[in-house]
Each structure stands twice: as structure tokens, then as C-alpha cells.
Design a protein that fits this description.
74% helix, 8 helices, mainly alpha, 147 residues
Length: 147
């Protein structure tokens, strides 16, 4: 299966956000390091940069979208899953050009690849709830088409 340039950008951005959360390195340093050390061939570099910088910049707003749907404190969520949820919340809230089902699917795949065993199920549940909140019209339209 061919992995899209945008999916590769999400993967690298999620890894960078994980590092930012855990090691508390600056976003600028992480971005520079990734551009030097990682294979950026076939990566949507502009999207990688957008995700990394905007998620960090809007972290409080994104956390406010996520927190009401959690069964525990955000600080108790696995760091990988937290990075995935923040990235997904950013896309749901700010990238209306990407269908919400694509955003959810990409988040679930990131959690499957990098997260804890069964963490993708947790991410899927939270993403579904955020989509219903942040993409209400789009979710309703899809639901209406299915019935």
C-alpha cells in the first residue's frame, strides 16, 4: 500500500509532537532536527511544518476540545495518544478541507502504529466525539445519507 505524502507528514508531526511533550524540546529545534535527520522524501513538508507549529501554538485550545471527552485527566493519557489526539483535534477544528472521516481514520492508524495496545480504540472514541462537536453539520449530513 502506497503511503501518501500527507500521511507521512502526519506521522512525522506526531513523532515531533511526542518529543515536544515528553522531552520539552522547542518546536523549532524539533522541526530542524527532523528536516536534517529524517527521510523527508515523499513527505508533504509544508503540511508537516504546519501541523508541528500550529498544534504547539494552539495546544490550549486543542486540549479544550479533547478534555471534555476523556475519562481521565489529559496528563494521564498515554503521551503518544495525547499527541495523536492533539493532531486530530487540530485537523478537525482547522482543516475543513479534510473530511472528518479521513481525520479520524488517520488518527486511528497513527495510534495503531505508535500507540499502546488497544490505544487506537480509545483514540477512535474520542475522535468520534470531537467530530460530532467540531464538524456537526458534516457528521449529520453523512448520517442522513446512510439512513
Amino acid at each position: 500500500m502506497k503511503i501518501s505524502a500527507r500521511t507521512r507528514a502526519r506521522r512525522l508531526a506526531m513523532q515531533g509532537l511526542y518529543e515536544w511533550q515528553v522531552a520539552q524540546n522547542s518546536i523549532r529545534n524539533i522541526e530542524t532536527q527532523f528536516l536534517i535527520d529524517k527521510d523527508m522524501k515523499n513527505v508533504d513538508t509544508a503540511y508537516f511544518r504546519e501541523l508541528l507549529s500550529k498544534v504547539a501554538e494552539l495546544v490550549d485550545e486543542l486540549d479544550a476540545y479533547i478534555t471534555p471527552h476523556l475519562d481521565r485527566g489529559l496528563d494521564e493519557v498515554d503521551p503518544v495518544e495525547c499527541a495523536v489526539l492533539r493532531l486530530g483535534a487540530y485537523e478537525l477544528a482547522n482543516r475543513m478541507d479534510i473530511p472528518y472521516r479521513v481525520v479520524i481514520n488517520e488518527a486511528v492508524e497513527l495510534a495503531k502504529t505508535f500507540g499502546a495496545d488497544q490505544g487506537h480504540k480509545y483514540v477512535n472514541g474520542i475522535m468520534d466525539k470531537m467530530a460530532s462537536q467540531l464538524r456537526q453539520a458534516e457528521v449529520k449530513a453523512r448520517t442522513a445519507r446512510k439512513s
